[in-house]
Amino acid sequence: MKTWLTLTTIFLFCSISLFAQNRDSSNAVLQRAITAKNERRIQLALNLFEQAVKYDTTNVEALKAMGEYGIESRNYRQAVDAFTRWNRLEPNNESTFQQLATLYFNLGRHQDALNFTEKWEKLHKDKPMHYIAGMCQYYLENYPQAINRLMYAMEKDTANAVLYYTIGRSYLEMERYKQAIPYYQKAANADQKNARYVFEMAMVYYSIPDDKNAIAMFELAAERGWQKNADYYESLAYCYMNLGDFAKSTENLQLSLEKRPHSLTVRYALAESLYKGGRYKDAIDNWDMVLQGDNKNARALYMIGMSYQKMGQKDKGMALCDKAIELDPSLNSLKQKKMDMGM
């Protein structure tokens, strides 16, 4: 019995002695890390902070310093590791809650971020983390909750373009287009260098539909640097077509085709614009090109037939329409509709 007690005492003494040595080593390396940090020797400081924590995994001061420097140097993964380990040692220490909520948000771990905002807000109801919570809800596709939290955040942060944009985008995702517009406008006004906000606003106007405002926003987006690519010209063209300005819709569809010459969708739209603008021969030429790329496109064949009828060649046109209906019987309803309209 006496021998067992003696061995136990020796073991405990050695353990305490080893712990003290580890803590002393950890603190010594921690001071070197702080010196390297102050000297702006970033990589050396990061390595020394990690070494300090390895010497003593329970050294809260080392974990805290490592986490704070990880944030300062934008090494967020190291910061998360440090604050997470600190949180495990002291799960009720609120100092880690806000830091981890912010860090997890920056790393795209949105559910983890929400968990820590909830922990923080249980203790600090007067200091809610509305912005981070709202952004996380948005990325988790919980759009009503995102709007609710971001509306609160907006009360104190009136110049945050991302905040306005996210509210607008949330309404857009819910297909509440008219409610989205004011927040897209606020975002575009708050950040006048961001062409995406304006382009998306144009698309929202188009979806309402409000083609006049959509055109104005497409043009403003281009002024702010949005690339005039094939999609840009195609979108602009549809707005003009809806307004009955077939000259402008034709012009923009031709520009779109210059950038995407093999697009049958744009080629068909160009033929439709030409047809509606009374340029039947040009429309036939473009629908012929659609058929060259897709010989089963019965609707293109049908519209060629309609174009010939518009040009006074009724027998030829009707024969082509009937052939198209044989390929696609659903076009018969289109024929009946045109007959009812006297076309």
From TrEMBL:
Cited SMART domains: TPR
Highest rank taxon of the organism: Bacteria
Signal peptide limits: 1-20
Keywords recorded for this protein, A-Z: Repeat, Signal, TPR repeat
Keyword Cytoplasm found: no
Gene3D superfamilies: Tetratricopeptide repeat domain (1.25.40.10)
Protein's UniProt keywords contain tRNA processing: no
PROSITE patterns, alphabetized: TPR (PS50005), TPR_REGION (PS50293)
TPR repeats: 60-93, 161-194, 230-263, 298-331
InterPro entries on file: TPR-like_helical_dom_sf, TPR_rpt
Record protein name field: Tetratricopeptide repeat protein
Lineage start: Bacteria, Pseudomonadati, Bacteroidota, Chitinophagia, Chitinophagales
